[in-house]
Design goal:
Blueprint (H helix, E strand, L loop, with lengths): L2 H9 L3 H15 L7 H12 L9 H9 L16 H18 L7 H17 L8 H17 L3 H24 L3 H18 L2 H17 L3 H11 L6 H17 L3 H16 L7 H4 L8 H14 L3 H17 L7 H17 L3 H12 L8 H13 L9 H14 L4 H5 L1
C-alpha cells in the first residue's frame, strides 16, 4: 500500500470521494484543476499505484488535504534506470550545451542549474535533506566542471554564483545530516565562489550559513562575529534580517542579553524598512529566504535563551501557528520542531511540566529522518533542565527527561539518511 492509499484509507474515503475533496479544496484555494473527476482519476490511480509522483498544483493540494508534508504523499515510483546512468546522461548533455554556444551569457546548462537550485531550495523546507543530497551534488559538479575547464569571463562570473549557491545548499544539507565539519567546508567554498564572482549577496548569505553551523556546533561567539561581518555587505532586506536574527540568538547563547536584544531590534528595523528589493539568491525561494514566520521563530529562541520565558514562549507559539496555518510547501518541519522545543524549555523554566509534556509530544513523535541535528542539539539542554534539584522528586519531569534521552540517543547520520 502506498502512502497516498494509506492516507485515503484513514479518512474512510473511496477514491472518488478523495478526488471530490481535492476538487473542493482547489476551488477554495482558487487553483485550477479539471472539473471532471474522471480526468483526475487517471492521475490519482497512477499516484496510488506508485507509477507516478504528483506534481504541482496537486502535490500542495494533497498535502493540505491530508495535513501532511509534501514528502509524505507518495512512497516509491516505478522502477527507473540506474540513477548514476541517468545523471551521467544529463551531465554529458549539459557539457555539450556549454560547448555548442560558448558565446551566450546564460547557457542552457546554466539555466538548468538555476532552475534546479530553485526547485531544491523550495523542496528543502519540507523534504528531509538526505533525499535532496544527490541532486545537489550533481548540480555542484555541473557547475564546477566548466569552471575548471575555463569559461569565457562573463560566463565564469555567473557560473561561480550558481556553484556557490549549490554549495550553500550543500552546507545546509550536510549540517542537517550531522557532519558540521564538512558543512563548514561547503560554506567556505560558497564564500570563495562569492569572492571570485564579487557577489555581495552570496558573500552575505554564505557568512550567515557559516554562522549557523558555528552556532549549532558550540561556537556562538564565532557565530555572532560571522553574522555581524555579513551585515557589512550590500544585500536584500531579507538577508539582513536573517543575519541579525542569527547574531541575536548567538549572543543569547553566551548570556549577552543586551547584544541579543539589540540584534533583534536591528532585525525588526530591517524588516520594517524593506523596500522589496531582492537579489537572485532570495528569488530561488524556500530555504534561501527568511520569511516573517522564521524571524518570529528566531525571536522566540533568542528570548527563551535570554531568560525572557513568557515573551519567548509567546513568539514561539505564534511561529508554530503560522507554520500550521500557512501553505504546506512553506512549512519548515525543522523550524517548527525547534520552536516547539523552545516552548518546552520556557514552560520547564517556570515549573509547568504538564505544559512542557504537551508541547513536546509532536516533537517526540517525529520519525528518524526528520530528526535533524539542530533539533537533537536543542533538546539536549532541555533534558538538563529536567534534572535540576527542584525537579528531582517530580515523576513527570523524570518521565519527560527519559523520553528525550530515548529520542536523541539513536539518532545518527545513518538513521537520518534512511
Amino acid at each position: 500500500m502506498t502512502k497516498l492509499q494509506e492516507l485515503r484509507a484513514r479518512r474512510g474515503w473511496k477514491q472518488i470521494q478523495g478526488i471530490r475533496a481535492l476538487q473542493d479544496l482547489a476551488r477554495l484555494r482558487g487553483v485550477q484543476v479539471p472539473e471532471d473527476p474522471e480526468a483526475i482519476r487517471v492521475r490519482w490511480s497512477a499516484w496510488e499505484r506508485g507509477r507516478a509522483r504528483p506534481q504541482e498544483p496537486y502535490l500542495s493540494l494533497l498535502a493540505e488535504l491530508f495535513g501532511v508534508h509534501h514528502g509524505e504523499i507518495v512512497s516509491a515510483a516505478v522502477p527507473v534506470p540506474d540513477p548514476e546512468q541517468v545523471a551521467a546522461a544529463a551531465r554529458e548533455s549539459l557539457e555539450f550545451a556549454l560547448w555548442a554556444d560558448p558565446g551566450q551569457r546564460l547557457t542552457p546548462a546554466m539555466e538548468h542549474v538555476a532552475y534546479e537550485l530553485g526547485r531544491i531550495a523550495s523542496c528543502y523546507v519540507h523534504t528531509p535533506a538526505g533525499e535532496l543530497f544527490d541532486d545537489l551534488l550533481r548540480l555542484r559538479d555541473i557547475s564546477f566542471g566548466p569552471l575548471r575547464q575555463g569559461l569565457p569571463p562573463r560566463q565564469a562570473l555567473d557560473m561561480c554564483v550558481l556553484a556557490g549557491t549549490a554549495c550553500v545548499l550543500l552546507a545546509h544539507a550536510t549540517e542537517n545530516l550531522g557532519d558540521p565539519v564538512s558543512a563548514m567546508a561547503q560554506a567556505r567554498t560558497a564564500m570563495a565562489c562569492a569572492e571570485q564572482a564579487e557577489h555581495d549577496g552570496l558573500r552575505a548569505w554564505g557568512r550567515g550559513t557559516a554562522a549557523l553551523i558555528a552556532e549549532w556546533t558550540g561556537r556562538p561567539e564565532q557565530a555572532a562575529r560571522m553574522a555581524r561581518e555579513g551585515q557589512a555587505y550590500p544585500q536584500s532586506a531579507e538577508s539582513m534580517v536573517r543575519l541579525a536574527a542569527i547574531e541575536a540568538r548567538a549572543h543569547a547563547r553566551v548570556g549577552n542579553v543586551p547584544a541579543a536584544l539589540d540584534a533583534l531590534e536591528r532585525a525588526r528595523q530591517a524588516r520594517d524598512t524593506d523596500t522589496g528589493q531582492r537579489n537572485e539568491l532570495v528569488e530561488y525561494g524556500g530555504v534561501l529566504t527568511f520569511p516573517a514566520v522564521k524571524q518570529r521563530y528566531y525571536e522566540g529562541s533568542t528570548l527563551v535563551l535570554a531568560g525572557q520565558h513568557a515573551a519567548g514562549e509567546q513568539a514561539a507559539l505564534e511561529a508554530i501557528a503560522l507554520y500550521e496555518t500557512g501553505p504546506a510547501r512553506q512549512r519548515s518541519y525543522g523550524d517548527e520542531a525547534i520552536a516547539r522545543v523552545d516552548v518546552v524549555s520556557a514552560r520547564i523554566a517556570v515549573g509547568d511540566i504538564e505544559g512542557a509534556q504537551a508541547a513536546a509530544g509532536p516533537v517526540l513523535a517525529l520519525p528518524p529522518e526528520r530528526r535533524i541535528e539542530q533539533l537533537v542539539a536543542s533538546l539536549a539542554p532541555v533534558a538538563g533542565q529536567l534534572t535540576v534539584p527542584r525537579l528531582a522528586a517530580s515523576r513527570p519531569a523524570g518521565a519527560l527527561a527519559a523520553e528525550i534521552r530515548e529520542f536523541t540517543a539513536p539518532v545518527s547520520r545513518a538513521a537520518l539518511q534512511r
